[in-house]
Amino acid sequence: MKLLSQLRTSSFQLALLYMVVFATSVFLLLAFIYWRTAGFMTAQTDETIEAEIAGLAEQYRGRGVNGLITIIRERVARDPNAKSIYLLTTDDFLKLAGNIESWPEGARSDSGWINFTLDDSVGWMGPKRLARARIFEVQGGLRLLVGRDVDELTSLKRVIETAINWGMGITLALALLGGFLMSRSTTRRIEVINNTSRRIMNGHLSLRIPTRGTDDDFDQLAENLNQMLDRIVYLMEGIRHVSDSIAHDLRTPLTRLRNQLENTLMSVDNDEAREQAGRAVAEADQLLATFNALLRIARLETRGNTADMKPVSLDELVTDACELYEALAEDKDQKFQQELESGVMIEGDRDLLFQMVSNLIDNAIKYTPEHGVIGVSVRKEDSEAVFEVRDSGIGIPDDEKDQVFQRFYRVGKSRSLPGNGLGLSLVSAVAEIHKGRILLSDTHPGESSPGLTVAIRMPAFTGARKRIKAEPAAGPAGEETGSPTETSGV
Q1: Which fold has domain 307-486?
Q2: Nearest-CA neighbor of 323 among 315, 350, 426?
Q3: Quick count: other Cβ atoms within 10 Å of Cβ 453?
Q4: What is residue 482's predicted lDDT score, i.e. its pLDDT?
Q5: Which residues pair with 460 in a beta bridge?
Q6: Which segment of 240-249, 351-360, 409-418, 454-463 scores lowest on mean pLDDT?
Q7: Of the candidate ranges 66-70, 95-99, 195-199, 397-401, the one whose mean pLDDT is the lowest
Q8: 486 or 357, which is more confident?
Q9: Would you kindly state where each structural domain of the chain is located, as residue ranges?
Q10: Domain 217-299, what fold?
């Protein structure tokens, strides 16, 4: 699969295009060399035959037919290897002189040239060879054939053709290998940028794309992207600082206002005024919960991975959270369906983990209709501890699942329900501290109320697998446990 993905890269396709252009250029060059070499050797052979014909014609003009026969016989005797081919016959093909016995068969050109095979069909006694000759008629009705053995020339042409074929094959193989290596080098650089970009998109904003110090195009691209990331982080930190400062500065006066409203509630005798004051106190509590959640998220994000990490029994922690919210679920006649594998340990901050688990369970209770069932499970899969909460509520559309972890983001169908859109942001911050991954999916895909399944996968504890006694958890009214007034209301 990795090789196939390599072959589909644009860099390899560009290298392949270059290989085709390069191979075509090499082929044209080799073809030109072959054409010039083979043409030169063929022309040299023809010139040799023409020279012999000119010599024989001169002998014929000076000495007649008998002189021509004599000179042919002398030349045949001087050439025991029969490199030159001669045949002189009468008009009715009766042999007068030569080193073959009969006329060869073959296509004859208009100029009298013929290519044929020296074998027993022409009375050749030696091994089969290739020959080229010219045929013309001599005055007096005689026929003359003068040629040359071109078997070595043909063999040399085959050697050149074989060399060209091998050269083309080696050229294509080297070009393909070079293209693959160049593509691999380029793809590695691009893959580093892609991997870093994906991790940054997953929330690791402190990462930057590495450079090699070569100041090439990839280094310049990486530096530009890093500068862009620095600017984005700076702007995000500015916005976050403003929102955190507002939450911090307003919490104290809002707390005073809430206390004054509560004192007013206790001092008034009129039922209508008491009801209005009670609603005002509730609204103030909701605002305080929002500010507390904002500050809590800010502390978690600045705290990073410096939390007090200790072995925590995840199944025991989830059991405590379910017991805490059991009364709230009974008010809506809901039931917990627990599937808790014992001995699932993780290394983390128990208070933060309890906050995360409580927020998710509270959300499930809020969005599960009456008489519904809330599924809670803990299990270990390979090297990961998995905590999962399932509800049968309105669910979250697929195109919004990546946005619900943003601060104050609420799904359109849940805006009428109480909440501030911060619960899942807090859950995301806690999961990130514990190197966890959050996966959202539909509990009942395709149904009108698909529900929501939230699965958090965290690295399982690899140390001693001893059970950790559960510590008492703060109640739902506290800031640290994710009270019903601090959940997201997605």
Answers
A1: Heat Shock Protein 90 (3.30.565)
A2: 315
A3: 20
A4: 39
A5: 346
A6: 409-418
A7: 397-401
A8: 357
A9: 2-154, 217-299, 307-486
A10: Helix Hairpins (1.10.287)
Global pTM reads 0.44
CATH code for the structural domain at 2-154: 3.30.450
Residue 32 pLDDT class (50, 70, 90 cuts): confident
pLDDT per position as a tens digit, 299-351: 665 555 545 678 989 999 999 989 988 888 888 888 888 999 998 999 888 88
